[in-house]
Amino acid sequence: MPPLPRVLCSSDVAPAQAATATTPAPGLGLLGCGTVGSGVARRLLASHPGLIRGIAVRDPSKPRDVDWDDFSDDAFDVVDDPSVRVVVECIGGLGLARELILRAIARGKDVVTANKDLIATEGPWLAAFAARTGASLRYEAAVGGAIPIVRALGGALAGEDVLEIGGVLNGTTNFILDAMEMGADYGEALEEAQRLGFAESDPRSDVDGHDAAHKLAILAGLAFRRPSVSRFVGRRGIAGISAADVQTGAQRGLRLKLLAVARRAGDEVEAGVTPAYVPEDHPFARARGAENVVRVLGRGCGPLVFSGAGAGGDATASSVVADVLAALESRERVPAHAGEDLVVRSLRAPVLVRYADGRVTMGDAVALDALVTETVKASVDPSVASIIPVWRDAA
Ligand code: NDP
Ligand code: HSE
Predict the structure, then answer these.
(1) Which helix (H) or strand (E) holds 46?
(2) Which of 57, 114, 216, 322 is the one with CA 20 to 30 A from 147?
(3) Residues 102-136 pLDDT 10s
């Protein structure tokens, strides 16, 4: 884990003060009011009038479906507002969002974020920094949209010996693969996912598997109780998937899904993100549109399946608002695990090989990191059209 930040001087670090009978109720500052932020704003303006003290956006003149007439273009101002005790970050990315979260933590404020890129990259030491300043860091919305999987792992499953965790963790790619099954074109389906607010601002994060890898790293850290970052997770996206791949599966009772899974293998953890064929009756196969499915296999609890809306403003806002309420009531912190970072090796799975002449064969289990891009594959054996893993659950 890298050292804690030195970008802020110690005078910046001020633990949150306890409210007294004479101090006003703590307020909330919202950073970003796009797909997710506007959902959060609409819900809190309706359910908790007066709670929101400031909303920062890039362009205050942009028309928005939110009943607020004083948008700020200075997000640092909103963080620094002394009446703001809870900072909700819905901007995204690793630049400005990171600076704002650091600033809020340094001031001992409670932070709620939907930013999986940041949590999967720097979450462990941000949590350690928060522990030092009396701040808190909550990120239910970073994984699984409306599905309360972060809470489940940190609470109800906190004592479980998890053997395997993962599933369909990206709504955009599931939406695209689902649409392709019904004959839609890849590019048109992606455009529709963007229009519906499912995709990241740079959709390559979705289709190339980065987003799913971030979410898997977050889940694996919570499930295996070790600091975890996504750079160790190997990934393949869906950009190379063709209509023929989808149809080949359908003819064999298999559906193509982008899976992100981590599992114990002896003393190690195997993890990876890959398109994979899943039997039609498997829980992963039932994800429709932008839904997500997370399966947790525990030694004691057996298989548990969590499913529901995995992307979109309202669904994600539901998780953000739950974290806001937890912060206001000082309950349900996300556990921060210490020790060496979780290092993973490549997930292994048997593969289905499709040849250019239409033949299909099953291949032995391979390490998914060994499955290379279409170009390299073709240079190894030009008769191979695609090599796609076939999912098998751990026992
Ligand atoms: P959007 O692009 O819809 O919204 C981003 C918001 O950030 C906009 O309101 C934008 O302002 C604001 N912003 C950008 N730059 C600045 C700045 N310099 N100062 C202040 N505000 C700024 O993104 P999403 O709502 O889709 O995503 C937000 C976060 O939530 C990301 O981390 C994403 O990964 C995560 N997330 C998204 C989900 C989804 O389904 N969309 C689901 C789960 C998590 P303006 O409106 O003026 O442009
Ligand atoms: N772009 C993400 C997805 C948003 O499609 O799953 C939800 O995290």
Answers:
(1) helix 35-47
(2) 57
(3) 999 999 999 999 999 999 999 999 999 999 999 99
Contact 350, 392 (CB under 8 A): yes
CA nearest 276: which of 258, 302, 288, 290?
258
pLDDT tens digits, 30-40: 999 999 999 99
205 C-beta neighbours (distance < 10 Å), count: 22
Bridge-partner residues for 166, per DSSP? 261, 295
**Sign, CA torsion 309/177/162/230:** negative
Residue nearest to atom 4 of ligand 2 (CA): 311
Question: Angle between the 35-47 and 313-328 helix axes, to the nearest 10 degrees?
Answer: 50
Angle at 202 between CA 116 and CA 342, to 5 degrees: 30
The amino acid sitting at 39 is G
Spatial CB neighbours of 199, under 8 Å, sequence gap ≥ 6: 172, 190, 193, 206
Atom of ligand 1 nearest to the CA of 311: 40
The answer to whether the pTM exceeds 0.85 is yes
**Helix (H), strand (E) counts: the chain:** 12, 14
Cβ atoms 264, 348 nearer than 8 A: no
Pocket of ligand 1, candidates 58, 68, 76, 292: which has the most ligand atoms within 8 Å of its Cβ, to mutate? 58
230 Cβ contact partners less than 8 Å away, ≥ 6 residues apart: 120, 121, 210, 213, 214, 216, 217
Q: Which H helix or E strand runs over 308?
A: strand 302-309
d(CA 214, CA 169): 10
Mark the ranges of the chain whose per-residue pLDDT is less than 50: 5-20, 375
Contact 123, 216 (CB under 8 A): no
Within 10 A of 198 (CB to CB), how many other CB atoms are there? Answer: 29
Nearest CA to ligand 2 atom 7: 311
Task: Determine how many CB atoms are found less than 10 A away from the CB of residue 302.
Answer: 9
Nearest ligand, measured from the Cα of 200: 2
Residue-by-residue DSSP string for 81-139? -TTEEEEEE-S-SSSHHHHHHHHHHHTT-EEEE--HHHHHHHHHHHHHHHHHHT-EEE-
